[in-house]
Design a protein that fits this description.
Strand order of the largest sheet: 1-2-3-4
Structural class: mainly beta
Radius of gyration: 17 Å
Largest sheet: 4 strands, antiparallel
Mean pLDDT: 94
Low-confidence stretches: none
Shape: globular
Length: 288
Amino acid sequence: MNPKPSDPLLAGRINVGSFPAGVAVDSRRGIALVTNESGDSVSVVDISREIVTDTIGVGRSSAEGIAVDSERGIALVANVGSNDVSVIDLESEDVRTTIGVGRFPLGVAVDSERGIGLVVNGEDGNVSVVDLDSLTVTGTIGVGDRPAGVAIDLERGEAVVANRGNNTVSVIDLDTLAVTGTIGVGGFPRGVAIDSGEGLAFVTNANSNTVSVIDLERGVVVETIEVGSAPTGVAVYLKTGHVVVTNSGVTSGTGLGALSTVSIIDVVDEEVVADVPVGSAPFGVDVD
C-alpha cells in the first residue's frame, strides 16, 4: 500500500502463508517478514519485486509478534502456541535458536542500542527481557492484565505496553527496566506505535473502534480518534507524518470479519484522512 494520504491505493497483493498476522520490515535488506499463524512459518518477501523468496518454519502459531534487529541481522518471532521465541538469522534465513519465554507471547520490540528485546507474555501479565547478544532471557517486568502490543521510544528510553485486560498501557523505563507509569486508554487495547519526534504514542482500542493518542512527556491521553471496526495493528510513517491502522473487525470474543479497511491518520491534525479497503481481518502492519 502507498501510505501517502493523497493517493492511498493498494500497490499490489502478495500471497503468503495461512492466516498472516504480523509483519516487520528490514529496510537494510529490502525485505518484509510475515508471520503465518496457522502455518507455523514466516514468509520472506522481496519488497521491490513483490514476491515471496523463502518460507521459514518457526514455532507453533506465530502471531502478531515479530521484530527486526537490522544491526545484528536477526528477527525475533513470538510463538503463542509453544511459549517461545524463534530467532531468525536474516542472512541465512534459518532459525538460529529458540528462546523459552512466558505464556502466550504476543508483542515483540527490539532496542538495538541497549541490546535488548521485549517479549510480551499475554497470559502471565509480564514482559520477558531478552539479551540480543547472548539470546537469553535476563529478566521479567510485571505489567498490566493480558498485555499484547509493545513499542519502544528510543529517544526517551521508554517502552509502552498495551494491557487488554484492564484497558491501560504500562510505561517501562528501559534503563531501570521498571514500570514508571500506567495510563488509561480505550477498550481492549491491542497495538502500539510511537512517533518519537512528536513525543506521541498511538494505541489501537479494538473494542472501542478508536485510537488513543498519548503525550509521552506528560503521560496523558490528549486525543481519541475514531477509526474502523476493531483496530488492531498500527505503525507510524515518519516520511509523511501519518499513522497507518489496520481495522481487523475482530474484537474480544468475535471471529473473522469480511473485507475491512486500513485507516490513515494525520499526526499533526490527529484525524483520519483516508480509509483504504483491504482484505479480510487485517492484523499486522509495518512501513518502509
